[in-house]
Amino acid sequence: MSTTGRKFLTSINWPVVSSVLSKHTEITKSLGVFRKGYEEAERQLVQLKDADRAIDFAHYRRVLKNTEIVDKLEKMAKAQKATKVDLASQLATISAFEAKAVTSAELYVKETEANLADLNETVTNIEQTRPVTQLTVDDVVKAKPEIVTRTEEMVKNGQFTVDGYDEKFPSLVMI
Q1: Would you say the C-alpha torsion 50, 54, 59, 64 has a positive or negative sign?
Q2: Could you give the 3-state DSSP secondary structure of residue 37?
């Protein structure tokens, strides 16, 4: 990974990202898997860089009787060269992850914009509402038409008090 990419990944505040995306578990899980894979690869890279790669062939020549084997192994070790690994499959996986993350982020933005639009509409409705003191019976019936049928049913049954009203609003009349 490039130095720039490494700096970018280490500069991310992962707890903040996780908390912001807490409602989007799929994104959070994908980021967690990506982060763990990155940290494991970084750990292995550090271990390989820190590993002592020098072999003391002189020591093996002194200890072993068959020095031909040591010579052959030394020749093989010197002939060994680092091979380049084809990273196309890893890069394709990263590109697929990136595309999925971008799609998820765009979906999240759309959802957030829709929520903001709903909240703005709610705020506008709240700002434009009339005070309760200015409401009429017709306004209440218009908002809740089932009140008329419930009231008619109560009058038909001879019930002129609402259940639980006295418990909720006790009478202030002194007996």
Answers
A1: positive
A2: helix
pLDDT for residue 53 is more than 90: no
Is the Cβ–Cβ distance between 14 and 35 less than 8 Å? yes
Length of the chain measured in residues: 175
Which pLDDT does position 90 carry in this prediction? 84
CA gyration radius, the chain: 37
Helix 88-128 to helix 25-50 angle (10° resolution) is 140
CA distances from 92 to 2, 133, 175 (A): 17, 65, 84
Distance CA 122, CA 113 (A): 14
Q: What is the mean pLDDT of the chain?
A: 82
Residue type at 166 in one-letter notation: D
Q: What is the pTM of this model?
A: 0.40
Cα–Cα dist 115/93, whole Å: 33
144 and 137 in contact (C-beta within 8 Å)? Answer: no
Average the pLDDT over each of 104-108, 114-118, 151-155, 159-163 and give the range with the smallest value. 159-163
| 153: enclosing H helix or E strand | helix 146-156
DSSP class of residue 158 equals T
